[in-house]
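Tokens for chain A. Residues wanted.
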């Protein structure tokens, strides 16, 4: 396929495309067919060191680059991404599986981080004040933190990259990006776009590797990386935090989720079902923000389940490139097996399948949209992030019961609630232990909002006016007043 053929397959280091030192490559597969799309360079620890050295060498000059120039590079990159929407969408669909309509939406969403941070680049501020004793003026400035290591997952191949690269570039930081080995092609295409937009050599470096632990740990312990931004599982996040401790690396992390969705008895049922479809089925459910536990008031439980099951059953499952496809394959067979194992476990413990729940025949890692009712407290799906198109429905009778159940998790990334009572909406939202809450909506992601979670769902925020602050340090200068 042309879009795959045209993407560079090497590592991007110091502004040039290079083979891996060992000559090794790794396969990129199409999850809709299980067939190999292409092979890309597979970085070794030595390749990782070269990428960091390139970022370190470029840091001083990039930090000194005027904010307006950094801003204009990001804006040009935004325009190039939008102009290449169809090619980028097809590339994502081929390597990740999502339907083309969703891939196009991700292009628009991902590009917006570059536009947003192009505007934030020229608004990095500081301050001047007189010390309380009057003896000094305190001049406060903000400086780039330094070379950054950015690690992105496979589920949003473009947006996870732009959400991290955008603020780093805007702040004046250089970058080593490690995309997921399942979906490296979009990141490599993004390197071409940023180069065309005028990004200087060494500011962005990209290493793809099948040996993430072996490549990443030496970089974090080497003393040259000053910032880590990671999106992935809480389990891996804990490991990376420990590795960052030795050299006190600044970190921001978007980790796992177990999002509750609450439908109260006064909810608009049409709005609640539609919002649940978005919260559950966006990206085939392969999102840390996906609704994982759906609590419905007993008075609405039967009607809600019937409507949701009908909507889910009507979705068309197939190759993301095929017209009319609503649900593409999961990322791989392991992801499909995880979803199916959770369904089987729930059924074994008493749950009922309203639709879906069966492994399809044929190639690819497809799984049907599935609705389960009668989830018991001991079912693994209560505590495990599904990352697939499985809606687990539970019931509740009181507001207190719903809030307690929603908060009964170590995670706190996103939550959703549906009610037409404003007092209840505000009261419950204040009590929910989540970094982001959707009120009568199933979509919380927005480049202008601070994305992130609490508890074991992460540290720091991405996007919004605070997103660039994750890549900046404060410095102040004491100036005697002569008083």
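Reply:
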């Amino acid at each position: 396929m042309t879009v795959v053929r045209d993407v560079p397959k090497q590592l991007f280091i110091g502004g040039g495309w290079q083979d891996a030192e060992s000559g090794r490559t790794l396969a990129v597969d199409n999850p809709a067919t299980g067939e190999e799309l292409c092979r890309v360079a597979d970085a070794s620890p030595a390749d990782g060191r070269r990428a960091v050295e390139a970022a370190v060498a470029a840091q001083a000059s990039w930090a000194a680059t005027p904010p307006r120039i950094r801003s204009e590079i990001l804006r040009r990159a935004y325009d190039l991404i939008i102009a290449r929407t169809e090619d980028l969408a097809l590339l994502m669909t081929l390597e990740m599986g999502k339907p083309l309509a969703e891939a196009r939406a991700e292009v628009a969403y991902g590009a917006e981080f570059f536009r947003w941070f192009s505007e934030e680049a020229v608004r990095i501020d500081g301050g001047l004040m007189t010390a309380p004793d009057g003896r000094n003026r305190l001049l406060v400035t903000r400086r780039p933190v330094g070379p950054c290591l950015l690690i992105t997952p496979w589920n949003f191949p473009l947006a996870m990259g732009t959400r991290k690269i955008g603020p780093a570039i805007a702040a004046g930081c250089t970058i080593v990006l490690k995309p997921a080995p399942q979906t490296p092609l979009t990141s490599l295409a993004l390197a071409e776009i940023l180069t065309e937009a005028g990004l200087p050599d060494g500011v962005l470096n990209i290493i793809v590797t099948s040996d993430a632990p072996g490549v990443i740990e030496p970089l974090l312990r080497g003393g040259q990386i000053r910032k880590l931004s990671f999106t992935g599982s809480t389990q891996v996040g804990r490991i990376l935090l420990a590795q960052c401790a030795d050299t006190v690396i600044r970190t921001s992390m978007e980790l796992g989720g177990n999002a509750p969705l609450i439908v109260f008895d006064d909810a608009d049922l049409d709005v609640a079902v539609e919002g649940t479809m978005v919260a559950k089925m966006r990206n085939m459910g392969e999102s840390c923000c996906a609704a994982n536990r759906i609590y419905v008031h007993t008075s609405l439980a039967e009607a809600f389940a019937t409507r949701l099951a009908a909507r889910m059953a009507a979705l068309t499952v197939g190759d993301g490139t095929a017209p009319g496809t609503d649900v593409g394959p999961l990322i791989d067979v392991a992801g499909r097996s995880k979803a199916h194992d959770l369904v089987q476990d729930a059924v074994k413990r008493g749950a009922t399948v309203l639709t879906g729940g069966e492994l399809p025949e044929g190639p690819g890692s497809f799984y049907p949209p599935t609705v389960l009712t009668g989830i018991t407290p001991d079912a693994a799906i209560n505590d495990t992030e599904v990352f697939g198109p499985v809606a687990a429905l539970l019931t509740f009778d009181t507001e207190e019961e719903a809030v307690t159940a929603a908060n009964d998790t170590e995670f706190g990334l996103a939550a959703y609630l549906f009610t037409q009572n404003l007092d209840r909406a505000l009261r419950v939202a204040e009590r929910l232990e989540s970094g982001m809450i959707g009120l009568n909506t199933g979509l919380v992601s927005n480049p202008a909002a601070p994305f992130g979670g609490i508890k074991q769902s992460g540290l720091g925020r991405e996007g919004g006016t605070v997103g660039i602050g994750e890549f900046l340090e404060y410095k102040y200068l004491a100036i005697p007043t002569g008083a």
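The chain has 14 helices and 22 strands. The mean pLDDT is 97.
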